Input
Amino acid sequence: MPDQSSEATALTTAAEQVREQLQIPGFDARGVHHLSRIIDAQRALLTPAEREDFAMALGCVLGECLVRTYGGDWAAGPDGTTGVGLAGKLFFNPFFLVKEQLDKGDTASVAAFFASVPERVANRFAARKG
Output
């Protein structure tokens, strides 16, 4: 990202706007469950052209949930994509995760992913110790 702080501010601002518009209760597990229900409700209704913008908008919310709940940071990944870095070693692309649930349904639930983050972080630390 050219300017990480302005990019992060823009993503946070977008996340707040989408959260308010969709009446998502907060940037936490409850909010992610609400987000997951919205994705499921829209899956069959969105045209292929609408899916990208939808994934971008809801990805901002999911990313901000990761940032606020798990102490992550908006960052550029190794491949240059925008996402959230956690624990100094993990990187998640919330836009991809939203798209996956749009494409695959509950088998790629953002709520299930979000709930798995503490275990992923713990496994990462355990792997470093070993």
Notes: Residues 3 and 35 are 28 Å apart (CA to CA).
